[in-house]
Amino acid sequence: MPRSIIIFFGPPGSGKGTQTNLLAKKIKLPAISMGALLRQEAKAKSKMGRHIKKYMLLGKLVEISLNDKALKKRLAKKDAKHGFLLDGYPRNVDQLKHFLTLLKAKDKIIFVTISLSDRQVMQRLLARGRLDDKPHIIKKRIKDYHSWNDPLQKLAAKTGIDLKINGNRPIDKIQKDIQAKLKPWLND
Ligand code: AMP
């Protein structure tokens, strides 16, 4: 059976993580968050752990080699055999190109983009208050998001099924919309 790989795009705070987890439960595939995998690695008292922590606190992207290591470890688990959902990865063209080299020919790849305005992103992240949710870091993450996102979206549209979702709605409405738009593309 081909694997279904569903990749969520959207600015920080767009609800990607929440929507990924809701969908994962519904379609019984694991939700994999690169941010969460890296936060886990950052807890280790190793050189790699300290390095990842430093990058995350600066709002900088961790190098491909490091997130690749974390991702491969996660994808090797049994529960990802029939597919998985990804949140926070790939984040730019280089990461997407790299990710595509890890796939098998039969894999079905679906992109779900959740959109949200910059003002809404700022408001939501300030309300969330995570360690890296400080105004100057948020501004950098929004700026980075825009510069990486346009080319990423172009490549994604050429690569797989490309679904667009309005993120400025209640959580359950967004989830319903995602499920409806995905339905024709998923195995039963
Ligand atoms: P997130 O939880 O997705 O907001 O990510 C938090 C932080 O983890 C980011 O600011 C980066 O430092 C790091 N990170 C998450 N995803 C990636 C990725 N795909 N590549 C590199 N670094 C990442």
How would you characterize the overall build of this protein?
The protein is an alpha/beta fold. It has two domains: 4-30 and 82-183, 3-Layer(aba) Sandwich (Rossmann fold); 34-76, no CATH class. It contains eight helices and five strands. Strands 2-3-1-4-5 form a five-stranded parallel sheet, sandwiched between helices. The model has no long low-confidence stretch (mean pLDDT 93). Adenosine monophosphate binds at residues 12, 34-35, 38, 55-56, 59-62, 67, 88-89, 91, 95.
CATH topology of the largest domain: Rossmann fold
What general outline do the C-alpha atoms trace? globular
Mean pLDDT: 93
Task: Measure the end-to-end span.
Answer: 12 Å
**Number of domains in the coordinates?**
2
Key traits:
188 residues, alpha/beta, Rossmann fold, 5-stranded parallel sheet, 5 strands, binds adenosine monophosphate
Q: Mind sketching the topology for me?
A:
Elements: E1 4-9, H1 16-27, E2 31-33, H2 34-42, H3 47-58, H4 64-75, E3 83-87, H5 93-101, E4 108-115, H6 118-128, H7 135-159, E5 161-166, H8 171-182
Parallel strand pairs: 1-3, 1-4, 2-3, 4-5
Helix pairs in contact: 1-8, 2-3, 2-4, 6-7
Residues 12, 34-35, 38, 55-56, 59-62, 67, 88-89, 91, 95 line the site of adenosine monophosphate.
Short description:
By secondary structure, the chain is α/β, with parallel strands linked by helices. It is built from eight helices and five strands. Adenosine monophosphate is lined by residues 12, 34-35, 38, 55-56, 59-62, 67, 88-89, 91, 95.
